[in-house]
Every structure is written in structure tokens, then in C-alpha cells.
Amino acid sequence: MRSVDSPSNRALHLLSLLQTGGEWSSDELAERLDASPRTVRRDAQRLRDLGYDVRSRPGPGAAYRLHPGTKIPPLLLDADEVTTIITGLLVLETWTPDDPAASVARAKLEQTLPPALRRRAASTALATQILQAGPAPVDFALVGTLSDAVAQGARVAFDYTDQHGHETQRVVEPYRHFLRQRQWYVVAYDIDRDDWRLFWLDRMRSASVLPGVHASREFPFPSIEAWLTSDFGRVSG
Questions:
Q1: Is 14 buried (19+), middle (13-18) or exposed (0-12) by CB count in 10 A?
Q2: CA 121 to CA 117: how far, in whole Å?
Q3: What phi-psi label fits residue 224: left (phi over 0), alpha (psi between -120 and 50 degrees) or beta?
Q4: Is the pTM of this model over 0.90?
């Protein structure tokens, strides 16, 4: 099992930040990766070794960027990793029958695989059947918008309809989205209400990432679960 703090996972996190565009200072990347600037340099070189055109500006104001038009190297997966990915996509296909995103992703993945792994992917799809009903459908475009905002330290604006049918416009700093008891939520800091709030993803509309980067706001609870079970921080442990 790979550690979430492994060099490979950290390099992938670095790549996801660089892919958002623009130039990132060494200090910014070190803060986002919870690592030292020296580690950032090593991870940047690791990406170069994999074929990514990571450009850097040396010196006291060291900065990094991914060269536009960088060609992404082919996927390097083994058979068990292919089985894991295909099975996960099959689960999503069953849970979201009206959204083609998962099935399209699976088809594209299979097209990129060499013959032996393509056969493993096809075998997994043939032999796997998902019977358990899934959670409420999720808008993958919305999930992507929230993910980008979290990675960039950006704010998100959206229209929200609460449980009483009241519609409001919100601006938040999203922290994490999660699945709990068959429902998708996002925990975010509500700028206008100056407090942490919980939003149902299926009640959010017209979400967009606002320009600008803001200092990362620390979630003031040990975990999301602890926050929920304490009645959103109103009941002490």
C-alpha cells in the first residue's frame, strides 16, 4: 500500500497544482505540499524524469510552471491497478446511470492501454456486476469545480436552495466534499456568514471558481466527522 505522503503521490499533487496554470513560487508549492523547498526541487525533477516539461526560475525567488502544450506521457499501470480503476468506474456507472462521464472515461482508458492490459480491463468489466444501490447522483462537473478551487486556494460562487426552498447566492472557500449516508456534501467557509457551513451538492447550481488566490484557512476541528457529531461545533467534546 502506498503512503499518501509517498514521493510518487506528492509528485502527482505537485503536477496537479502546476496543471492549473501560471507560475508557482517555491514557497507556495512547499506550503501546499507540506514539504521543504528542497523537496519541491526533487519532486519537480522527478516529474521531468517522467517526461513533463516543468520549467523553473532559480534564485531567491525560485518559481515553477508547466510549459503549455506539454505532452502527457503514457499511463504506466500494472494489471492489478487496471482492475482497481475499472472496478471503481463500474461502481460509478451503476450509481450514476444518467451521467455518461464514468462510462466515457472507462472507454477512453481502455483505448490507451496496451493489448494485455486492455484484455484485463475487458475481463474485469465482463466479470464484475454491481448490485448495491448507490448514493444520490453527483454532478461530476461540480465535483471538478470544487476540486480545482480546493487545489488552487480559490473561492467558489454558486446559487443555493436550502431545505425550506429559500434561494441564496453564496461565496465560499471549499475545504472538502464527501459522501455520507448516501448523500454528497461539501464543507466550506461561508464568506458572508463568517462561519463554517455544510452544503448539499445537489442543491448547488451555477458554481464557478472566482479569480484570485487566498491564504489557506485551517479547518478548526480534528476531523469532519468530529465537527458533524458535535452539532457543527456547537457541542463541546
A1: buried
A2: 6
A3: alpha
A4: no
CA geometry: angle at 186 spanning 163 and 7, to 5°?
170
What tens digit of pLDDT does each residue of 56-104 get?
987 777 899 988 766 555 566 778 888 999 999 998 888 888 888 889 8
3-state SS, one letter per residue, for 80-148? HHHHHHHHHHHHHHHHCCCCCHHHHHHHHHHHHCCHHHHHHHHHHHHHCCCCCCCCCCCCHHHHHHHHH
Q: What is the distance between the alpha carbons of residues 111 and 117, in angstroms, rounded to a whole number?
A: 10
- Counted residue by residue, the chain has a size of 237
What are the residue ranges of helices labelled H in the chain?
Answer: 7-18, 26-33, 37-49, 79-95, 101-112, 115-127, 140-152, 224-229
Residue 224: phi and psi, rounded to 5, are: -65, -40
Cell of 60: 531567491
How far apart are alpha carbons 73 and 50 in whole angstroms? 7
SS3 state of residue 197: strand
Q: Which amino acid is at 65?
A: R
